[in-house]
Amino acid sequence: MVREWRRLKKIDDLTYIGECDSEHPAARVFGGHVLAQAMSAAYYTAPEGFYVHAVHCYFIRGGEESIPITYNVKIIRDGRNFAIRYVEAVQHGKVIHLAEFSLQKLASVKDTFSLTPEFPAHVPGPDGLISNISGRHQKVAEGFDARELRGQVTERMAPSLEIRPADLNMFLHGTGGINQKQYLWIRYKIPVDKTDYMLRHATIVYLSDLELVTTGALCFDDKMFKLQTSMDHSAWIHQYEFDINDWILYEQECVANSNHRSLIHGRLWSRDGKLIMSTSQEALIYKVQPSKI
């Protein structure tokens, strides 16, 4: 049984301790996990009726899954309609992650309208698609080297999520640098209470860090080995109300690459065509020559 990733212990009003998502910690902690726990810590200190609408963060050091992470919250501003929280994630006495959260008072929103781009209706729905994990296992059974298959190992680092790529072959093998865009259906496996808006918002931020680095590497020749890591991440929540228990379509596109850095833009859609969130991430991607055996 997968576990809910949000496990924070309150130390004082501005300090929290978090545990890793993986049931068998063995490697570097998933960045989206740290970001989402930081968001939860910020929410616990926020004024009533305020909701996160913008997130900006930096992934500074790789964290260890087996070691608890301390989240130190700083109250930057509590205004009439907006509030700012700044969160440091610390491990072994060093900051591994910095995040800033802007919150809006929902009651202050009046006489507004919604503008949204067109939903990518040409993308097949999640029903009938194969998950990234099942697809990887099939490819290995067919004789492919698991080390040469693309995509993050979500089975271990994010067990609470299921991913179904719209194009599994491109997801696992790439296109030799021809295509820079991919679509993923993502679902959180554990039912979330519809009234728990903090978990709903933190969970979509949690999954928003998935596979953007993989998309950033699409512009490379897929035969090359690559060192990949997220550097910074931004997200803007457009809809406070959405069903985190349903499938969410993640549209991702690499829009630029220079100086070893790829910039990836993303859009997260509900199944009924509403734009829930927009994201941008800068990923560090190096070409690495394969070792000679």
Automatic annotation (TrEMBL):
One GO BP on record is: acyl-CoA metabolic process
**GO-annotated cellular components:** peroxisomal matrix
Residue intervals of the Acyl-CoA thioesterase-like N-terminal HotDog domain: 25-99
Q: Could you tell me which residue ranges the Acyl-CoA thioesterase 2 C-terminal domain spans?
A: 164-282
Molecular-function GO term, any one: fatty acyl-CoA hydrolase activity
Q: Which keywords accompany this UniProt record? A: Hydrolase, Lipid metabolism
Pfam families per the record?
Answer: 4HBT_3 (PF13622), Acyl_CoA_thio (PF02551)
Query: How is this protein organized at the quaternary level?
Result: Homotetramer.
Which PANTHER family is this protein grouped with? ACYL-COA THIOESTERASE, ACYL-COA THIOESTERASE II
Family label: Belongs to the C/M/P thioester hydrolase family.
Protein name per the record: Acyl-CoA thioesterase II domain-containing protein
Instruction: Tell me the gene name.
Output: Cni-Y87G2A.2
